[in-house]
Amino acid sequence: MDNYTCNEIAKILNLHTSTVSGWVKRGWLKGVKRSKQHYQVRAEDLKHFLKNPPSRIRNRIAAIDQLTIKYLVG
């Protein structure tokens, strides 16, 4: 898959949708606004984010199952 919604990312990573959309709103995760409340994230941008998360959430990202991340971004 080339693009994901925040909802899709949240479901796969077992997070709340507002957590993922918050990352986009803060500029931590690159996404394109598709409507007033929905963003689309390219797999390449998600992969970069998961490999290089902001220091504030580095431990949270590290706690996510690596097989789940690999499933999501290859």
UniProtKB/TrEMBL annotation:
InterPro entries cross-referenced by the UniProt entry: DNA-bd_dom_put_sf, HTH_17
A Pfam family reported for this protein in Swiss-Prot or TrEMBL: HTH_17
Residue ranges of every copy of the Helix-turn-helix domain listed in the record: 4-52
Top-level taxon: Bacteria
Name under which the protein is recorded: Helix-turn-helix domain-containing protein
Lineage: Bacteria, Bacillati, Cyanobacteriota, Cyanophyceae, Nostocales
